[in-house]
């Protein structure tokens, strides 16, 4: 496994995604409330471009007759058949123990700031003359 720089944090604003190809594999990188996740861009059902699907939430367990919405922006819905996957771990919403998509580790590294240096030379003033020593 190799590390790949795909851009800066600013390139993937909160609530968006960036789809990249790394070592021949299409991967969607998602920014969910400032935390980054990477998911293989292939739905296990029929190979759809999963990461092009809608990002949504889901109904949480709740009492009968009550609908509680949650996990906003953490569920990825396949654009072909609506299969839903948890972006944070790749598990399917309907069968998390047997159906999942490959996920990848994402890390944020501090951006190196290029140091620009300027050569300076001593300057003296002698008897009204400016003298630079090189």
Automatic annotation (TrEMBL):
<dbReference type="InterPro" id="IPR017941">
    <property type="entry name" value="Rieske_2Fe-2S"/>
</dbReference>
<keyword id="KW-0479">Metal-binding</keyword>
<keyword id="KW-0001">2Fe-2S</keyword>
<feature type="domain" description="Rieske">
    <location>
        <begin position="3"/>
        <end position="115"/>
    </location>
</feature>
<keyword id="KW-0408">Iron</keyword>
<protein>
    <submittedName>
        <fullName>Rieske (2Fe-2S) protein</fullName>
    </submittedName>
</protein>
<dbReference type="Pfam" id="PF00355">
    <property type="entry name" value="Rieske"/>
</dbReference>
<keyword id="KW-0411">Iron-sulfur</keyword>
<dbReference type="InterPro" id="IPR036922">
    <property type="entry name" value="Rieske_2Fe-2S_sf"/>
</dbReference>
